What does this fold into?
Amino acid sequence: MEMITAALLGNPNVGKTTLFNYLTGSNQYVGNWAGVTVERKEGFIEDRIKIVDLPGIYAMDTYSNEEKVSKEFLEKGGVDVIVNIVDASSLSRNLYLTLQLKQFNKPIVLVLNMIDVAKTKGMKIDYQKLSKKLGVTVIPISASKGIGIEEVKKLLKSGNFFSLYNENDYQYVEDEKENYKYIEEVLAESMIYEGDKRATIGERIDSIVLNKFLAYPLFVFILYIIFKFTFSWVGQPLSDAMDSVIITKIVSLLDILLQNSSSWFRSLIIDGIVAGVGSVLVFLPIILTLFLGISFLEDSGYMARAAFIMDRIMRKMGLSGKAFIPLIIGFGCSVPGIMSARTLESDKDRKLTALLVPLMSCNARLPVYALFATVFFPGNETFITFSLYLLGIGMAFLIGILFKNTIFRKDEEPFIIELPEYKLPEFKSLIRSTWEKGKGFLKKAGTIIFAMSVIIWFLSNFNFSGMVDMGNSFLAYIGGAMAPIFKPLGFGTWQSSVALLTGLMAKEVVVSTMGVVYGVELQKILLQHFTSIAAYSYLVFILLYTPCISVVAVMRKEFGNRMMIFSVLYQLFLAWVVSFIVYNIGNLVFG
Amino acid sequence: MEVIITIGIVLLAVFIFYKSAKKKTTGDCDCGSCTSHCPLYEERKANKSVKK
Amino acid sequence: MCLYDLKPGQQAYIHSVCGDAKLAKRLLALGCIEGTPVKVKMAAPFGDPIIINFRGFDLAIRKKDARNIYIKEA
It folds into this structure.
């Protein structure tokens, strides 16, 4: 049997990806804000039906990049059927896209999502009539509750959508007013609106979180709570437990096991692999908790509000509130942040945003902060880490203004963003996406961090004449050559310098490098090599300097060599200058 | 014995390093610490399913 | 009169949209067309952007763009 291609289309944030996940059994991330799906993605039902999830769009003809992707696919992708998912509680706007989709002369399955929400809003929809009126197949579902999904599957599998009535009594015209007039006629016959019965909880929340005086403090407060959750309440205690119980046990166990081995072999296993991988691995709970917090915010619908209150600030940099989304994504990892800058409309917007994304502190930097904060600022971990994140945001803001007024002179882009309704994030989906991240982190620890630890162990124990004291090793030599550059910043040892270099592979490797060169008792030894101010200066440098190779490569792939070189150099320069200032002012004030 | 294990570990490490470095320099990313909605992640998943 | 002149909580009907072609097209596609009831819900902390509501959903737009949405009383 031939493969059927079904294109999944609909407005942003109507549950498209949720439906996609249900239909294909995959695990794509779903967020409660517009613009989560940037690229199209594919999944299968029983290898017979290919489902293609396209970016959420409001219409086909308003010149956005997402629309281009969708339109091109509908025209050239060999689409057999369009699955148009609509928000049943906001039909008139959603059906506008449906009318435009009818122009493509393909069978349409209209999936009415959120029928439960529509009901609580007091809307009664006559599905039969709607189906007849529009000449499409209508299936009511509630994707978040898993209702009606089987019917969609069944229909797609049966292939019956081809033969269903397709009376196209309305021809789309190039006039929005006419189209909406038609939609209103359809709805007048197929829907009864009894008035909204719900208390408007959303409006009440908005009146607080968007309040004139409270909005910004609340924004900072919410972020602070997430950090508090991560560093004081849940993540850090778990990390400490993991460190003291698991890692210590493994080390003592290995010590016994390797009693009779030669000392160099014991060193490779314990000081190399266990210290290198273990020093990073203990931060797994911290990463998971922070991620859980951010997922909660994203699912709740708050992020669009954050973009809303940030628009004012973004505009100072000449960017629209839409550019806020790549920046937020950058908190996870700069690579997807830079890639999602694709959705911005002007070339200048894309470039400026891509240059700023790496200043958003990514997850990979978190283990470094966590390590230094626990060692040098016990009791103040939350504050220290939080201050670094804020410093990154502040720097992005300053650099944005600087670039806007020098290399990227440009006009303002228009900005509109839909504010989704608040919803309580679902426990299951939170756990699922958090687990995905955990898996990714473990994989990273098992591959690149492991490999780097072994390599670093060799470089730190050998030179051309064979195995030597660490102070004479390759690594000490390389680090020693770099160290003078960092002396004015307060951390001129070869160990800290070389960790910055190895950190280019992945920022966590900074921690594993230190684990290898300082040994398993890392936390105690670190205190001898840094003053508190130097430690903070080091963290500032880690925050701002050139991110990992992946980011450099993606910068090149998306924007070419010149942009790549520029971004590397400006970040190195910025990191040096800011660390210098922080170190010297810190010494003046606290020294 | 120790030498053999060591050679095994080193070969594995170099192999992983080489693979990962190659991947990274082509702009691919293996950051598992990736956010929620990684366009790249989605692309890769899509490619995978196509191959199937 | 335009949307810019409405205070939070006030309601009116759309008359027409002009200004930036892309933005106008988008607003029209969203159903911001003549005769649609529209309400200004609230403003961001510094008074800009603002949240408007029509056809049952909330949309954030900048005040500058709100100036290009003309309205009429019932």
